[in-house]
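sorry for the late reply, my laptop died twice this morning and i had to redo everyting from scratch. anyway the thing you sent over, i finally got around to it. pasting the sequence first so we're on the same page, its 348 residues, then the predicted structure underneath. double check i copied it right bc i was rushing
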Amino acid sequence: MITAVALSPSVDVTYVVDTFSPGAINRPSAVHRVAGGKGLNAARAAHLLGADVAAVAILGTSNGTWFADELARVGLPLYRVDGGEPTRTCVSIADENKHTMTEIYEHPGRVTDDEWSALGSAVAAAVADRPGWLTISGSLPRGAPEGALSALVGLARQANCWVAVDLHGDALSEALTGEPDLVKVNAEEAAEMLRAGPEATPLGLAKLLAGRARSGAVVTAGVDGAYGVSDSGSTRHVRSATLGTYPVGSGDCLLGGLVAGLDDGRDLLDSPGHRECRGHRERVAARRGLCGPARHRRGTDADRGQLTADGRVSTIMKFPRSEGLSPHTRAPHQTALHADRGGGQHGA
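ok and here's the structure:
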């Protein structure tokens, strides 16, 4: 089971236009509204691949009911915490002729001490009800107390849950003090946190991050795909020649796909001959909230695992399952990337 903490939920609105004209009136050909933000985008992707997923989020009272209804519509249970400020809105304008995306994202709202405390209580209840994985992703809201993220990691540890994080800046640095199991970030976020120079490679950054996580790290590099490194030093580079039209939400879906496979105990290193997922179309469906249980069923074995930056489903890591054995009592050698040893990479 997977519990997704949405640190900065948002009402994601996508306007599709034939050609976007700045400074003029633009009439969209389609409008999509979804209960989104990084945490919930990842949750929907995992749900799309057949995982048992629930979400935890602070939602504004003015639009929180709509938000909760949208999650219910796509089959995602919600541990809701009421917040005083409206849930933010993030707008994307997709130009179908130029294949560009213009984005206007509000900053996350401010939370009070009581609201953050209630979020912690909701997370504790969720991981007690739902052993497995806790994902923490998104921007930390203003007003969150010092040590907030390491405390969330600690809650998962107390419940013997694995932890995966997709954060940036100081939030990522703080989360790493709690030693999460999996870190998934893009190359720019990794370089910023590690203060790496321009010569740093995605694989090198992944190796450094893997040394600060219990089981491994994945660093994405746009069209160059994703680089994974396990705690044993095994490495894997996955890249597809098939590119989606818009990259928005790809990294969120990658996290959801990774954790869905890990939670299912799959061997997350897919061979090049394995079937590919429906890719970009399903990623867009996940982002737009069109992945309700009546529309998509459990994915095939080849569908589980990593969603790379371009939408290909592949696999990276393996967390073997053992009934009655908590994740943190398993021997380190049980988690491995079955790929190149000694730092090799594909296509570098």
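The chain has a mean pLDDT of 78.
thats about all i looked at so far, will dig more tmrw
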